[in-house]
Amino acid sequence: MHEVPHLVAPVGIDELAQHTVPFAANELLALDIPVMLIPGVRNQTTPSWENLSGIDLMRGEETQAVGLLLGYQPKLPCILIELGSTTKLISINQQGKIAGSITSLSGQVYAAILKQTFVAASVATTPEEEAQAKIEPQIIDAACQSVQESGLLRTILMSRFLQFAFPTTAPQRKLFLESAMAGDDINVFINAQHQGFNFHGEIFLIGHARRCEIYQHIIRQQLKIDSPQRIISDEQQIDLLAITGASAIANTLRTLR
Question: Keyword Transferase: yes or no (predicted)?
Fold first, then answer.
């Protein structure tokens, strides 16, 4: 495989195209179609043991960012919050360039909790319960408060204790656990603000609808950010962001050659 170095932010579609590496059919992979490797983006920072908070990078999300800019044409600057295996905040500056990112591992940690810990038994829900589950602001706020007072790890365990010490349903306990993961990401938002991310413009939440709604509540009620928020939760629309972005980068590359 060919290595393509990350570009240093700020980076726009032209820079991404200029550093994209094209390959003919069957040149890189056993595929009868051309292949293009698009570079990722890393933050502009001088890392040291005393200054680790500014370190961050992306590989793949840059195509989603370009796709969103082209497909939704947001007022700039804006913030993208991608909620998948990670929580990734992406700052888009006034010029429509990726200015930086900050990421946490919340999505993968949540998945590991459900797969590898006894907490999973206390938050297991049926499809019927999932369909009827509601977003309860009181539970979200309680989880955030617990994270602030007792830390994330004890709050995760609290999801188990609730089953035996407090009259709750499995969907409520699951919401509490999900909200704890999101509540811990409050530190990510605070860190982003310290790094100069502009939260006064439009905020796009991209991911599963329920998770987006939890973060939407936390942004408004816990962080007191009242900027307009848009949720993109349809799987096809999310896929289309990356497809649109990658296609635009490829087309720009062709015009530059």
Answer: yes
Give the residue among 66, 58, 65, 2 at the shortest CA–CA distance from 251. Answer: 66
Rounded-to-5 percentages of helix, strand, coil across the chain: 50, 15, 35
Tokens 């698009």, residue located:
38
By DSSP bridging, strand 98-104 and strand 87-92 are: antiparallel
Residue 56 has pLDDT above 90, yes or no: yes
Residue 59, pLDDT score: 94
Q: Amino acid identity of 1? A: M
- Distance (Å, whole) CA 82 – CA 61: 8
Query: Residue 121 gets which letter from DSSP?
Result: G
Task: Enumerate the β-bridge partners of residue 92.
Answer: 78, 98
Helix (H) or strand (E) holding 116: helix 106-116
Q: What is the DSSP letter of 48?
A: B
Listed residue (40, 41, 67) closest to 232, CA to CA: 67
Measured distance CA(178)–CA(162) in Å, rounded = 14
Provide the 8-state DSSP code for 221.
I
> What are residue 57's phi and psi, to 5 degrees?
-160, 165
- Tell me the pTM: 0.94
What pLDDT digit, counting tens, does each position of 170-226 carry? 999 999 999 999 999 999 999 999 999 999 999 999 999 999 999 999 999 999 999
